[in-house]
Amino acid sequence: MLSAIRQVAVFSTPLSRTVSQKVMHPTKFTSILQNVPVRPVSGWQIFLREQLHAQKAKGEKVAAAVAIKEVSSRWKSLSDAERQKYTDLYQKEAKVHDDAYQKAMNSASPQQFYDENLLRRRYKLPVLKDPKAPKRPHSAYFLFLAESRKSDPRLISLSVSEQAREASKLFKELPAHEKERFNKLSDESKENYRREMDKYMSEITEHKLPSEKPKKKAASKTDSKKTAATKSKSTSTKKTTAKK
């Protein structure tokens, strides 16, 4: 069996799925995020991990709920300076994760993303998005919105949602020749996207995963009893027939 796929981009706890070696045969599958450490959630999580490891090292056997309650009480009794130590550790570990994640994602090839995402879809895991893949083109309205946010004083002071509402009204009121300018820019960006996407896809050999054979369902005790009863009945019938 191959090692588990770990999704650390979104979740603090890695997701695990066992992947059959036959699925990628003869190519051995290795996740793009294989060597990316799990990102901690907070300084509290690091403190909890440290305390639980210390209890385990001492050989103390305590129920998980009780242990967490005790550690939580200790955490609350820490001074701000003592808590800062764990906040600093959290920031350090988070940076290690972020750097490793960015390096892994930026160094992976389009083919690696394609192969891994095939498996992720099969096992219902979140897919990975290639940061180097061409960005989808914007519509004429979104190009107008982006330009207006920088230059139109009526939008600069508004919140993001208010900007979108106001820009929508302004776009509808634009003269035809101005709308045409943004439509042309949108068409150009779509054409550029198609060219870049063709180039990107040329680096990928598309294929399908072999279908996995469904596992045989283990016979339950009830089924076993029914089978035994059927065999016994069949044997009795044969004996009766033989006597006749």
Automatic annotation (TrEMBL):
<dbReference type="GO" id="GO:0003677">
    <property type="term" value="F:DNA binding"/>
</dbReference>
<feature type="DNA-binding region" description="HMG box">
    <location>
        <begin position="37"/>
        <end position="105"/>
    </location>
</feature>
<feature type="compositionally biased region" description="Low complexity">
    <location>
        <begin position="227"/>
        <end position="244"/>
    </location>
</feature>
<keyword id="KW-0539">Nucleus</keyword>
<dbReference type="InterPro" id="IPR009071">
    <property type="entry name" value="HMG_box_dom"/>
</dbReference>
<feature type="domain" description="HMG box">
    <location>
        <begin position="37"/>
        <end position="105"/>
    </location>
</feature>
<dbReference type="GO" id="GO:0005634">
    <property type="term" value="C:nucleus"/>
</dbReference>
<dbReference type="Pfam" id="PF00505">
    <property type="entry name" value="HMG_box"/>
</dbReference>
<dbReference type="InterPro" id="IPR050342">
    <property type="entry name" value="HMGB"/>
</dbReference>
<feature type="domain" description="HMG box">
    <location>
        <begin position="134"/>
        <end position="201"/>
    </location>
</feature>
<feature type="region of interest" description="Disordered">
    <location>
        <begin position="181"/>
        <end position="244"/>
    </location>
</feature>
<protein>
    <submittedName>
        <fullName>High mobility group box domain-containing protein</fullName>
    </submittedName>
</protein>
<dbReference type="InterPro" id="IPR036910">
    <property type="entry name" value="HMG_box_dom_sf"/>
</dbReference>
<keyword id="KW-0238">DNA-binding</keyword>
<feature type="compositionally biased region" description="Basic and acidic residues">
    <location>
        <begin position="181"/>
        <end position="213"/>
    </location>
</feature>
<feature type="DNA-binding region" description="HMG box">
    <location>
        <begin position="134"/>
        <end position="201"/>
    </location>
</feature>
